[in-house]
């Protein structure tokens, strides 16, 4: 388990829901990955991300899927892609990533409470 943090520490991490509107191959990545374009609603806008999610997801299955992302990390250059959000997920028993998602649809941009 990680070190305990305060609720104020947790509040500093801005986790929002967004809808994947584009997904494409990312052949330049060191590990198999996709390039994602995610709509986080009018306040945050459209953001790019890369995600190592090729084991459980096809490009077609990602379009329209709502995901959670950390939107207040600084952008990170991953090869030729500037990743603007950290798309959240968990490792399965084999280390492949399973996306974190909401159970029911919610408006893009809503903050995790």
From TrEMBL:
PROSITE patterns noted in UniProt: TRBD
Highest taxon in the source lineage: Bacteria
Entry's transmembrane regions: none
Pfam families for the chain: tRNA_bind (PF01588)
Keyword terms of this UniProt record: RNA-binding, tRNA-binding
GO molecular function, one term: tRNA binding
InterPro entries: CsaA, NA-bd_OB-fold, tRNA-bd_dom, Tyrosine-tRNA_ligase_regulator
Residue ranges of every copy of the TRNA-binding domain listed in the record: 9-113
NCBIfam families to which the protein is assigned, alphabetical: chap_CsaA, PRK10089.1-2, PRK10089.1-3, PRK10089.1-4
Name this polypeptide is given: tRNA-binding protein
Organism of this sequence: Rhizobium esperanzae
Lineage of source species: Bacteria, Pseudomonadati, Pseudomonadota, Alphaproteobacteria, Hyphomicrobiales
